[in-house]
């Protein structure tokens, strides 16, 4: 409950939130895992939970006090989606929690919570809203997606393709590892995992990925402390390949934290050359450097600041940016609508305006970072989004305004199994893939000699 209320206040799920709550409440590993399941589950299925609860209440769920909404959703999630929680326990814990919060609420809502949850237990599963009469409402309820996003996808892609995206947003993502080739090989790490009775299989597209059959505590896996792997979705593992970095080159990761792609670049460069990793928040660069130490990356230099401020009208104001780069990766801040299954809170705290806000930042960052590229150098722009305003149109407008940059097909630098994800324009798009990958976009441009 406290975690969900913190997310509601912040509008986002911070990476360290679960650790903070676990420490404050002195939770053991088992209880922490249960808390994570409850929080992510409620966020993932919130609209569906509200619909089911609303059928049984004479009050609109979203009009109730936030605390009561949260307790009802927690109880309903356990009743509808968790087989191992006894129904009586889910109801009783919800009622007791409501009683404990009565002073905060100004009245005792426990009778209401008890009545609604017990009605949910007794009621047969209702028919889903009819997709034929209103596909937006039907998809929004069935796959727990905000109506504005469903309407946007239906308008742009049609109801059938929109349903594929909606369904993907409620799927639990697999736990995927990127093998750190500075320390080991995929076959060796696979053998280490098998020896520890951890079931894993090679990813089908990335040639350095392993997908675990079930989630577990990452730090307990063999090879974690030795830096033999980094947790990263398979789609994200494809992005650094598109730069075709070579040992000895000078590369820039313009938005580096938490360091997954920067450390992958270092592995591709065989720890030879130089990588400058920029991020606006210095504390996030601390995480980058911690990952570098664990993974054995020795060629990365952190630089805190917003590139839009670090690069002036004509020249870079920081010495580290004064020499041109051979390769630049701009993994731009975006709406994150391609990774909703990993960040389900994004369904409820992002708005249509989020896309426009991020687009303005993406345009500015691309214009600034491109000035740091040497003639003949390569820049890759990527985003965990599938919205045209943040993807194709960004590159279209950039190339039209900067004639010294030419778009290049990413096909030569993808593993053969990745070729189906090359768009007619030569970009990378993993939208609606069947490989359980996140939804990413990437484009490659080269500066003329």
Helix content: 40-55%
The backbone outline, from C-alpha atoms, is globular
Helix run count: 19
Contiguous low-pLDDT stretches (5 residues minimum) are none
- Quote the distance from N terminus to C terminus: 58 Å
The strand count comes to 12
Largest sheet: 8 strands, mixed
- CATH fold title of the largest domain: Rossmann fold
Number of domains: 4
Cα Rg: 24 Å
| Gross CATH architecture of the largest domain | 3-Layer(aba) Sandwich
Give the overall average pLDDT. 95
Corresponding CATH superfamily of the largest domain: Vaccinia Virus protein VP39
**CATH C-level of the largest domain:** Alpha Beta
Main structural class: alpha/beta
Which strand-content bin applies to the residues? 5-15%
Question: What are the defining features of this structure?
Answer:
globular; 8-stranded mixed beta sheet; 4 domains; alpha/beta; 19 helices; 4-stranded antiparallel beta sheet
Task: Outline the fold blueprint.
Elements: H1 2-10, H2 17-25, H3 29-44, H4 46-54, H5 66-81, H6 87-100, H7 102-105, H8 110-122, H9 135-142, H10 147-157, H11 159-169, E1 176-179, H12 186-195, E2 200-202, E3 209-212, E4 229-231, H13 234-238, E5 250-253, H14 260-268, E6 274-279, H15 282-295, E7 300-304, H16 307-310, E8 325-331, H17 346-349, H18 352-370, E9 373-383, H19 392-401, E10 405-408, E11 428-429, E12 441-447
Parallel strand pairs: 5-6, 5-8, 6-7, 8-9
Antiparallel strand pairs: 1-3, 1-4, 2-3, 9-12, 10-12, 11-12
Helix pairs in contact: 3-5, 4-5, 5-6, 5-8, 6-8, 9-10, 9-11, 10-11
């Amino acid at each position: 409950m406290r975690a969900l209320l913190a997310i509601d206040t912040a509008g986002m799920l911070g990476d360290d939130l679960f650790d903070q709550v676990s420490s404050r409440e002195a939770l053991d590993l088992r209880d922490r895992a249960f808390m994570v399941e409850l929080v992510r589950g409620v966020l993932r299925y919130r609209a569906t939970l509200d619909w089911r609860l609303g059928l049984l209440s004479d009050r609109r769920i979203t009009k109730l006090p936030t605390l009561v909404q949260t307790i009802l959703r927690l109880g309903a999630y356990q009743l509808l989606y968790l087989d191992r929680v006894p129904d009586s326990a889910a109801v009783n814990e919800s009622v007791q929690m409501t009683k404990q919060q009565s002073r905060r609420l100004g009245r005792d809502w426990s009778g209401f919570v008890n009545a609604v949850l017990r009605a949910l237990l007794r009621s047969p599963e209702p028919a889903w809203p009819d997709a034929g009469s209103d596909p937006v409402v039907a998809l929004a309820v069935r796959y727990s997606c905000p109506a504005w996003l469903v309407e946007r996808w239906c308008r742009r892609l049609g109801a059938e393709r929109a349903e594929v995206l909606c369904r993907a947003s409620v799927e639990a993502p697999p736990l995927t590892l990127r093998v750190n080739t500075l320390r080991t090989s995929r076959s060796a790490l696979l053998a280490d995992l098998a020896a520890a009775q951890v079931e894993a299989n090679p990813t089908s597209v990335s040639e350095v990925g392993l997908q675990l059959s079930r989630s577990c505590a990452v730090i307990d896996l063999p090879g974690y402390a030795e830096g033999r792997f980094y947790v990263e979705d398979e789609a994200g593992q494809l992005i650094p390949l598109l730069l075709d970095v070579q040992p000895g080159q000078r590369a820039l990761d313009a938005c580096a934290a938490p360091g997954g792609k920067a450390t992958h670049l270092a592995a591709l460069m065989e720890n030879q050359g130089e990588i400058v990793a920029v991020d606006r928040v210095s504390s996030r660069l601390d995480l980058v450097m911690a990952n570098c130490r664990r993974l054995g990356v020795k060629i990365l230099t952190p630089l805190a600041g917003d590139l839009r401020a670090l690069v002036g009208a004509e020249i870079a104001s920081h010495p580290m940016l004064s020499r041109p780069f051979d390769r630049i990766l701009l993994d731009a801040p975006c709406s994150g609508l391609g990774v909703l299954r990993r960040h389900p809170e994004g369904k409820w705290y992002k708005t249509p305006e989020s896309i426009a806000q991020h687009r303005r930042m993406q345009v500015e960052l691309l214009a600034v970072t491109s000035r740091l590229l040497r003639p003949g150098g390569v820049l890759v722009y990527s985003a965990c989004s599938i919205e045209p305003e943040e993807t194709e149109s960004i590159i279209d407008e950039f190339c039209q305004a900067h004639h010294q940059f030419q778009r290049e097909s990413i096909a030569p630098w993808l593993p053969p199994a990745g070729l189906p994800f090359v768009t007619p324009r030569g970009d990378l798009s993993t939208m609606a893939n069947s490989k359980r990958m996140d939804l990413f976009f990437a484009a490659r441009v080269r500066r003329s000699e």
